[in-house]
Task: structure prediction
Amino acid sequence: MLPEYYEFYLPVKINSGQDALETLGWEMQQMGLSRPIVITDQGIVGAGLLKVFLDTQKNSGIDFSVIYDRTPSDSSIDTVNEVAEIFRKNNCDSIIAIGGGSVIDTAKGLNILISHHASDLRSLMGVDRLTAPQLLPLIVIPTTSGTGSESTLVAVISDRENNVKLPFVSYKLVPRLAILDPRMTQSLPPRLTAATGMDALTHAIEAYTCLQKNPISDAFAYSAIELIRDYLFQAVENGKDRKARLAMANASLMAGIAFSNSMVGAVHAIGHALGAVAHVHHGTAMAILLPQVMEYNMPKLADLYARLLLPLAGEQVYLATPMEQRAQKAVEIIRDMNRRLHKLTGMAITLSQAGLAKEQIPEVAHKAINDGSMSTNPLDIPQEDVIKILEKVY
Result:
């Protein structure tokens, strides 16, 4: 059904392909940029990906000497403050993020801090709280295929002092340029490939079913689901498969575009709380929670879930099965995907395997119901039901 009103915004330029990295110098010259700060992490350095990046830029005419490579696995206010000091000291004019969600969120946090001449990110937390007319140019080169952060309006930064994750939501946070190059994801280990792929699938399914869905976000979400169907297991089983890696990178990007224009739901609300309380890996949390939350939402979403069977199981099965059965089958297919990924990679498929202690469940549930993503879930989920969901997947 066409909504009475919706908005869709896609300002990021996308350079995607086998040699996409080589376009960066020209793109920066067109934007009048010459001295970026490059933000990455030790995993990227150790995998040789920073060297791959720098080797492709030798003749670009851009100064890439300012590099911050100590981003932690969970971006924090302290990290953003540290990077901001380096940025100011070196008179940088732009930001390049090479990495996964934590690196990209750190870059977005830095952009908020610098562009607002601020000293405390907490004062700008929330939805549409950014007052600067324009943020600095942000270029993102993802090394995972899951968060979609290279195309989203969202950043999540940990406040370790208060043990919470701070959300920042603004169209001003959408990067200026996203470069998708399969060379940058080929070294991602199978388990992370699996977890980040399920994160992208969750983005797509929640974008396709949340309260703010619209026809254009649906198109991006549905296409992402199809690509994940066709290429996730190829990427897991053969990380050097450039076609599969590029397909998953595009799926992640499209899922990010979809949920940036429609939002997500309860899977993410609970997942954010799991990360804050128990440091459960986000993609793993998405994989574990997705089918269980889909079951909870079934009374409201059966017709939409039934359509997911077509890309996930094939047209003949879809046409021969009643709607309610198709919807339930879609949930079971996702559970089967999780079991297969667990067998292939050891990815956790229960919260106990993922590191949650049972006594932490009430705290997770309390934080989840206060998460902004819960507001766009098609059904209201009270705290006691969140506890039940968590217990079922424990």
